[in-house]
């Protein structure tokens, strides 16, 4: 490899380096841990190192044979010997090419295998992290661990290891051979070494600083583009912003990147020209001093040629090894950042000996539940939040002795002010968090003692945002039921009142919904999440403000779909709109992390407490609680209007009570 090529690689690696104290990193036990992780590839690593050594030996052999050819030509050698030496040189060249290919194959196999192992390990580990981890972590920082850091760790084996081994062997053999030929020329050549090493380190460090500065400006530009090029961002700029000011700000940042690019190009060009000049001067020195020694009878002509060729093989490894410390430290830092994620212990873990939730209709029980959200240090890393220090706040109790029971098939509604703790209760049921004291039970089994698989099969949730992946409708549905047939998918869509909409789409089930499902309307997105819930067929359904952000028409369609989803299932419904929970079997009023009232819609209105206050806020004064007709057995019915929602309580049909639907009966209750 030429001096110029090695110099380019050295500059690139210095610019890409993350820094780090090599001594501290090496003394931290990190190398031993890396070896434990990588030893599954130990056979290929051994072959890789052996081939690297062989390649270095072949590199040194060619100059020696070339010198012998020159001696044969200038002396009394024979043509047969010259041809034989030329054939040997050709054979060595073929051997070098073969060794280079094999080395590269082993290098890529080991490196890519390591990438696979690291990425899989990090991905699997992150999948097990609690929701609290994702609420704090910056997604970009986490993705970077699977990208830049894993690639940096991979380079430790594919580039740094092979480079250090090959360059050490090449340097040792080259120096030994050069000293054996002429110690005078060798010492003079070594005297020029600082002219190669010092520029590589100084200019490399300067380029690294410029690269980081450019990266910061590029990140700022990317942030500006990402925010302004999204539909909401572009709308905001058009409504309130100044396009000229936006353009000017972007141009300033882009101009800084341009200036840095020019400076970087000039530094790189200066460095490369300097090394080329130094290499040429070193060769001139070898030819001058070596020629003088040859004329004095101290050297043969072939020795001068060998020294000149060996010199080109001397400065390349010297330049590379001068920066090996930076490369090794950078690789260790990458490993350290990957292991930092792997060392985070998930707060939510399946206990040894976990049991499945018992079959049959589901009972939900909260028994004196107290809960505090975890502190940042328990679930996150400062580097993933991109802060210098983690926020040490946390541990303040947000639920204070919450107790209630939802019997099989019952609908329990949670209402109250924002921040009262309603969504926290729902999250504890799905075991997105664990309680500090008390217990949450499903059919008598504490959710902390239940297997993850049975918990997922038992509890299903529809959230307010109705999140979807940037995939097809089919893929988003089959997330809940991978074995579902085409007929199952369409049946779920029909029950969710979405089959006609999907059938009218050009691609049908294969229609890609867009990022977060933004190609669908809010109501369509919610109905698709309900169809997914229906495919999962859980025994307990949790609805967390499932219709809060919808218009009346979309809400009515979603409510009809929810009626299907809740039929015959135990349900926990969270809502700010009291009109959506009038039919609940039990309404729990949550304030300040406590249940302050419980009862039916009629009972709570008659009591005149917090629920009645919330009702007055939404619907105006309620002078008296109506007297309902004699109880009618509960039935599953489809709401008649936008204000009704779930399977109706004490429903009256047109034949039985002269009314036309659940929605009108609820209107009677709220008069």
Question: How would you sum up this structure in a few lines?
Answer:
With 671 residues, the chain is an alpha/beta fold. The protein has 26 helices and ten strands.
Topology at a glance:
Elements lengths: L2 H14 L5 H5 L3 H9 L3 H33 L4 H49 L3 H6 L2 H43 L1 H9 L1 H37 L1 H10 L2 H53 L5 H22 L1 H19 L21 E9 L3 H4 L2 H4 L11 E10 L4 E5 L6 H8 L7 E6 L2 E2 L5 H7 E4 L10 H6 L7 H10 L3 H5 L18 H15 L3 E5 L7 H15 L3 E5 L11 E6 L2 E6 L1 H7 L2 H10 L34 H4 L4 H9 L1
Helix pairs in contact: 1-9, 1-11, 1-12, 4-5, 4-7, 4-12, 5-7, 7-8, 7-12, 7-13, 9-10, 9-11, 9-12, 11-12, 19-21, 21-22, 23-24
Question: What do you see in this structure?
Answer:
The chain has 26 helices and ten strands. The chain is of the alpha/beta class and 671 residues long. The protein folds into two domains: 3-342, ABC transporter type 1, transmembrane domain (ABC transporter transmembrane region fold, Up-down Bundle), CATH 1.20.1560.10; 364-670, P-loop containing nucleotide triphosphate hydrolases (Rossmann fold). The strands form two sheets. It has a six-stranded mixed beta sheet with strand order 6-7-8-3-9-10, with helices on both faces. Strands 2-1-4-5 form a four-stranded antiparallel beta sheet, covered by helices on one side. Helix 4 runs antiparallel to helix 5 (79-127). The model is unreliable at 623-671 (pLDDT under 50).
